[in-house]
Design a protein that fits this description.
Length: 322
């Protein structure tokens, strides 16, 4: 059938018609909101490169989490800035670490908000790399045990989901084995299965104070030029016991999200990263685009590409807009 019998514009004529046939919808329950927690009980401080996002004490994180829960958002994912950093990122897996404390505070305040934790060393290491460093090299295998300890300590504090973001080979199996051995066989692993070495992480590094002190992360994060490699990464993570596959960043990798959706039956997540957020915020502040429309369009595109849920700094605002 073709024109003039077929006229696709018929179904675009009114808002009701458009809503009736809309294929993709972003809802608050498909969103996860990132929180940055800091030691002590100082006042919340806005993160300059992430307008609307704050460094939070454990008590403030719990208050923020309650608000997130009341908006119908499904979960939060926690990142920690420790009191002190060292080469092995010791505070990352300390029982009284900054994330562990915040998890306990949030769990005692919120009824059923999902508390997820980012599992990686870079926020806690003095060199800012995601693994154990030997000379100029980031060592894979010695890192696995530390990641596993971190995941177990998060689960012990009450995390519902752990999310390794380091991109070391074999970390999902190491974490699964350690969780199972520690009585956390029911704790799911949300794996950052395809995490690219991206320029769009800039604002996050300021927020998490996690910029590498030497070199870059191209030796372990993925080359943005590759999609088949992303599928191999996913395959490996599935074999090792991942429960959800995450792609990061989202907007530059919609094809990767689509390909992973196509090839795997597991739930797919996408991380709408700090740079994606900051660039729209900055353009909106200059009056160059409409933030609300641009944000809703971005997240809808990520969902349309195949993401079941999205980690986004817009989660709270979006819950109000939708
Ligand atoms: Zn890292």
């Amino acid at each position: 059938m073709s024109f003039p019998t077929e006229r696709p514009r018929r179904l675009r004529r009114t808002p009701r018609l458009r809503a009736l046939v809309r294929e993709t919808r972003v809802t608050p329950e498909r969103l996860v909101y990132p929180l940055f927690v800091v030691p002590g009980d100082g006042p919340r401080r806005e993160i300059p490169s992430l307008p609307g996002c704050f460094h939070l004490s454990a008590a403030d994180a719990a208050r923020e989490a309650r608000e997130v829960e009341s908006l119908g958002i499904s979960g939060v994912i926690l990142f920690g800035l420790p009191r002190a950093k060292d080469p092995l990122g010791t505070e990352g897996y300390a029982e009284d670490g900054v994330v562990q404390k915040a998890v306990r505070a949030i769990r005692s305040e919120c009824r059923d908000l999902l508390v997820m934790t980012d599992v990686c060393l870079c926020e806690y290491t003095s060199h800012g790399h995601c693994g154990v460093v030997d000379g100029a090299e980031v060592k894979n295998d010695p890192t696995l045990e530390l990641l596993a300890r971190m995941a177990v300590s998060h689960a012990r504090a009450g995390a519902h989901v752990v999310a390794p973001s380091d991109m070391m080979d074999g970390r999902v199996r190491a974490i699964r084995t350690a969780l199972d051995a520690s009585g956390f066989a029911d704790t799911p692993i949300l794996s950052y299965a395809a995490k690219y070495a991206s320029a769009f992480y800039g604002p996050f590094r300021e927020a998490a104070d996690s910029a590498p002190q030497f070199g870059d992360r191209r030796g372990y994060q993925m080359d943005p030029a590759n999609v088949r490699e992303a599928l191999r990464e996913c395959e490996q993570d599935v074999a090792e016991g991942a429960d959800v596959l995450m792609i990061k960043p989202a907007m530059p990798n919609l094809d990767v999200i689509g390909a992973v959706r196509e090839d795997f039956d597991l739930p797919v997540a996408a991380y709408n990263v700090s740079g994606e957020y900051a660039m729209l915020k900055a353009a909106a502040a200059k009056g160059w685009l409409d933030e609300r429309q641009a944000a809703v369009e971005s997240l809808t595109a990520i969902k349309r590409a195949g993401a079941d849920f999205i980690v986004s700094y817009w989660a709270k605002e979006l819950a109000g807009w939708l």
